[in-house]
Amino acid sequence: ALAALFAVALLPALAAPASAAAPITTSIYTADPAALVAGDTLYLYTGRDEAQAGGTNFVMRDWHVFSSTDGTSFTGHGARLSVSSFPWAGADAWASEVERGADGRYYWYVSVNGNGPGWMNIGVAVGDSPLGPFTDAKGGPLISDSTPNSSPLNIDPTVFTDDDGQVYMYWGSYYGLRAAKLRPDMVTLDGPVVTPQGVSNFWEAPWMFKRNGTYYLAYAANDSGCSAPNYACIRYATASNPLGPWTHRGVVLDQVSSTTNHPAIIEFKGQWYMVYHNAGAPGGGNFRRSVTLDKLYWNADGTMQKVVQTTG
Ligand code: FUB
């Protein structure tokens, strides 16, 4: 259903990027990036688009890892997690994110279709290194349709650890952003699911981070103020508390050549990056997307400059 919503639209000339940044790989189609810095390495965790040319829906079975030591060239490490890693799941390896726990292990939160417990769920796997191997950490969904106050669509987890060690997770779609604290075990909710306030036109794909004491939440929006019908731009909001209330700050990435988009914003070796996806690779499309990245720059007042999409 989500795919159908995004299936057809034309880019208006005004909002279309002049060119698309180079993909991190052209060996496979990749989507929904999450970024993690560990040591001197930038890791990107992505989904894989396997739709045939002209396909009209997502075909996504596993999640892949890429790494870079310079923020420019990436090494592929193959599929490190798949739908079959979760015995309770059945399909749809949608957006994910990896967070390091206080125990030094790496927790990979995923959107995945349940084989019984709900449509889309949040699952979590764990591994001892950024490359895994990863195994199901909970034996069932962390979030499902039966979770009190769950989102209308339980997808797109972003997990953030504050300076005091408290871990938060945000997720959702169809304008249903949700958030909850996680216990130090990284796999159990710590308190109720809440609905953050003040996040204008939230659609999906939240990405949470903190800079200079301010909390930032970037996300895909698809309102007419920033994108053509059925396309997305990336808006962002700031807050002085991790659960809000949030203040909308504007568009940080205009719409791209794919209907969906999904941000990861990270500092690596002193340079900030916007990691996202588009349909720019050869043979690409709305269901054959490619992850790419561009440099992101800050204004003195803590707002983000709109990302310039380059030719890479
Ligand atoms: O890739 C499948 C879904 O499309 C993701 O979960 C959303 O963020 C959007 O990119």
Automatic annotation (TrEMBL):
Keywords: Carbohydrate metabolism, Glycosidase, Hydrolase, Polysaccharide degradation, Signal, Xylan degradation. It comes from the Bacteria. Residues 1-20 form the signal peptide. GO terms for molecular function: hydrolase activity. Belongs to the glycosyl hydrolase 43 family. This is Glycoside hydrolase family 43 protein. It comes from Nonomuraea ferruginea. The lineage of its organism: Bacteria, Bacillati, Actinomycetota, Actinomycetes, Streptosporangiales.
